[in-house]
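wait is this the right file?? whatever heres the structure
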């Protein structure tokens, strides 16, 4: 069989792999994507929130100025490309647990650094019969969310149409490298880029990186009476999602599997019932493993020994917001030899 010559092999079609694939395709690069289409990845079960604020400390999300507008633009481009709606602008209301929290928000809203990201006004635009919160709420500005699974499924179909998708689990024994090429089956590429999420811990080329994986569980729910057209955060988030709502999420650093648990379900329901006075009907319950990193920064760059092997991973809980910006940075590194930021370059660990 005549070898198929391409520029890049991308392993993984989660948020990182999909965004990178399209970014390279836009530069007329020949790619293939290898992905087994696992049903319960963290990318697929993620609520896809783009929150410009870290609620715990009331600070801006890391690199929000550089990443958020670019991310929105990227997903709106995808909507034009694929003819579907994926990204929605939506305020996230922070429900205050006590008066002190409300005063802290008010104080922080006077900082110029946060003018664009949080609303200084205390407001409570909810059905008081079904939302119980005596200390009121305020909302984020410029927040939104991506229907991650819907977008990933439509983008997968796009890759299939372009004949660049291999629906299989990659066997690393099938990869052979020379100084300037990577061989996989009948494909010859300049480089291979691993975007495997938490599976990277089993990849001998990159398993030395300091992943600190977290399991997260999310419920899809309905309410008997309550109707929301904004997201709410108070210990857990509640996000309007089509006819249903997403309720999440848990954080578990020990039981790293994709099995949904009764314990997590009860934890989410218990927290939600502290401010929701309505019957909560569970439609679905899923678990996934987030590819989080010890220093909470992405893992991007070249293997120290095998220069034609790269990684694009570790985007963590902010992956929807970070992926388009850092995919562009990786593209510039690959095509124009522009250096990667030391904050994200994996050479910070060797």
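ok assuming it is, sequence goes like this
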């Amino acid at each position: 069989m005549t070898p198929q010559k391409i520029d890049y092999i991308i392993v993984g079609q989660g948020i990182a792999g999909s965004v990178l694939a399209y970014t390279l395709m836009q530069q007329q690069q020949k790619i293939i994507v290898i992905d087994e289409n696992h049903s319960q990845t963290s990318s697929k079960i993620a609520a896809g929130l783009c929150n410009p604020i870290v609620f715990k400390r009331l600070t801006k999300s890391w690199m929000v100025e550089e990443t958020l507008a670019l991310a929105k633009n990227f997903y709106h481009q995808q909507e034009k490309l694929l003819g579907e709606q994926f990204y929605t602008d939506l305020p996230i209301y922070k429900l205050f647990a006590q008066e002190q929290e409300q005063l802290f928000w008010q104080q922080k809203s006077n900082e110029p650094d946060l003018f664009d990201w949080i609303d200084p006004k205390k407001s409570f635009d909810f059905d008081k019969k079904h939302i119980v919160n005596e200390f009121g709420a305020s909302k984020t500005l410029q927040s939104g969310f991506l229907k991650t699974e819907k977008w990933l499924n439509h983008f997968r179909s796009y890759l299939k149409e372009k004949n660049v998708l291999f629906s299989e689990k990659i066997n690393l024994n099938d990869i052979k490298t020379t100084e300037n090429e990577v061989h996989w089956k009948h494909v010859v590429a300049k480089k291979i880029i691993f975007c495997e999420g938490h599976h990277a811990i089993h990849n001998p080329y990159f398993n030395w990186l300091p992943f600190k994986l977290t399991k997260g569980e999310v419920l899809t729910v309905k309410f008997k009476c309550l109707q929301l057209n904004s997201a709410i955060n108070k210990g857990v988030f509640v996000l309007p999602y089509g006819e249903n709502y997403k309720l999440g999420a848990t954080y578990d650093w020990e039981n790293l599997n994709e099995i949904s648990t009764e314990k997590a379900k009860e934890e989410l329901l218990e927290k939600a019932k502290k401010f929701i006075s309505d019957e909560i009907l569970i439609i679905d319950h899923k678990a996934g493993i987030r590819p989080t990193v010890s220093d909470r920064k992405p893992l991007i760059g070249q293997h120290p020994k095998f220069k034609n092997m790269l990684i694009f991973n570790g985007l963590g809980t902010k992956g929807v917001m970070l992926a388009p910006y850092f995919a562009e940075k990786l593209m510039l590194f690959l095509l124009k030899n522009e250096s990667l930021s030391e904050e994200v370059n994996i050479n910070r660990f060797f």
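The mean pLDDT is 95. so i think its the right one actually
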